[in-house]
């Protein structure tokens, strides 16, 4: 059963947002962790290249030697800032998203489904100090597992949670119209058909051939009879796209 | 085609262009804004109609891409319509001028209690090390102990080791981390904050007692006084904020515990927004004035008291406003 955040607006509208669970959160966090680590390392590498590649002894001695500690700050500070401020800055700029969250298909919202403000984002990130205790975000993970909304302590403090984004292509409306115009499929079959078509390339060839054949049988269409698995795969894909009214 | 399919097709034909316009409008890519306000009215009306369309889509074509599309569109439109006006700077100004003094007044008993806790811990630390000198190893490193035993303070050669700018930067970073930690550890029903405040008090008192045994306590006071007033004030204030989180968790009153906690975080967190920038000044003083012997004690004392007065004046602005 889906864990839904139901939001009732003043206009009488009920919005249902599916709450992101620990798996999606962790997936997003791991992607973000790699991003910020790589960005920090890129800075360190770039700064190192600049200093060594310049071949100018004065730059090196002015930054690292002769007891001048500012060199270390110029070298390490931006890398540290990137690492520490990655989440709050991007969540503010990208309206509750980060690259990792975007790739995981989730976003940050308040309890009433809105994009959180700056204060809430700062608070949830400040409480990472607690969520990361004693190591590897153990406290945050336990909190996520234990709470109905799957939130860590920082989210409890800020009143935020993560929900799945309704990611639908820009052509969704045209596809819906084509489906309704060209087929008499029931809604559940329409949804299944579009899912198969959309995920065709990500599915194993043998599996998608079998799924497509069974789907055609389910809706009372004859499966194509052709020689060769490659040809069958191509013809099935074309047939499903024809039914869905999706252009190649 | 069944009559149901026909009705659905007719419905889609009648709505798609409107939904596309709402989509473009909610993404800020619509090109028909005349500036007359007419589009805004249409947008709001379109959003209301969208609510009905979404309900219809949920009942007729549930779990389809169309329903998901309409849900996403409704979220974006709602956000656009219900977005709160105002700017970040105005919000910060209001926090500094109105919210913080009000919170300081509301939390006055917690703030006083935290300061007293710090003082009592300091006195305990002083008594402990004065009575059992070997306990100083709990609060100071062996290197610090050796330095004091040789008749010098570890702060004496600070400027020969690090330039003031680097010193100030390191101190600011450290103090901000301590302050934030003191606040967030309040989530453990206040115990984490209690530990931080008590340990800082014990440490300060213990170090004073230890340096006193070698006649260096006056010089330590000279080092601390210029920056210490604000630095310790901010840490105590963060401690009070952290303890207020603990109190909200322990005694939520008629609210749900989570709601009481959330309110306490928002309320107490506003204190830190104004208090933490003062740590930058304290760090600069600690980097440039405190370790510099060319500044006499009187100047350092006046600096500390004046900066402390400014800090508390800003934080407690509600007291004088209340009197007007």
Task: Summarize the main sheet of chain A.
Answer: 2 strands, antiparallel
Individual helix count of chain B = 13
Compressed to H and E, one letter per element, the order of chain A equals EEHHHHEHHHHEHHHH
Beta-strand proportion of chain B: under 5%
What class would the helix/strand composition of chain A place it in?
mainly alpha
* Residue-averaged pLDDT of chain B: 90
What does the overall shape of chain B look like?
Answer: elongated
How much β-strand is present in the residues of chain A? 5-15%
Note the overall shape of chain A: extended
Q: What low-confidence regions of chain A span 5 or more consecutive residues with pLDDT below 50? A: none
Distance between the termini of chain B: 78 Å
Radius of gyration of chain A: 25 Å
Provide the spatial order of strands within the biggest beta sheet of chain A. 1-2
Number of domains of chain A: 2
Quantity of strands of chain A, as a count: 4
- Extract low-pLDDT stretches of chain B: none
Order of helices and strands of chain B: HHHHHHHHHHHHH
Question: What would you say this structure looks like, in words?
Answer:
The complex is a heterodimer of chains A (248) and B (324). Chain A has 12 helices and 4 strands. Chain A has 248 residues and is mostly helical. The mean pLDDT of chain B is 90. Chain B is mostly helical. In chain B, 79% of the residues lie in helices and 0% in strands.
Which descriptors would you attach to this protein?
heterodimer; A: mainly alpha; 2 domains; two-stranded antiparallel ribbon; 4 strands; B: 324 residues; mainly alpha; 13 helices
Question: Quick summary of this structure?
Answer:
The complex is a heterodimer of chains A (248) and B (324). Chain A is mainly alpha-helical and 248 residues long. Helix content of chain A is 61%, strand content 8%.
Please give the structural blueprint.
The complex is a heterodimer of chains A (248) and B (324).
Chain A: E1 4-8, E2 14-18, H1 22-53, H2 57-63, H3 70-93, H4 99-104, E3 106-110, H5 118-126, H6 128-131, H7 138-146, H8 153-158, E4 160-164, H9 172-182, H10 187-199, H11 205-218, H12 229-244
Antiparallel strand pairs in A: 1-2, 3-4
Chain B: H1 3-27, H2 38-60, H3 65-82, H4 88-106, H5 108-131, H6 142-149, H7 158-161, H8 164-184, H9 191-213, H10 217-250, H11 257-288, H12 297-315, H13 317-323
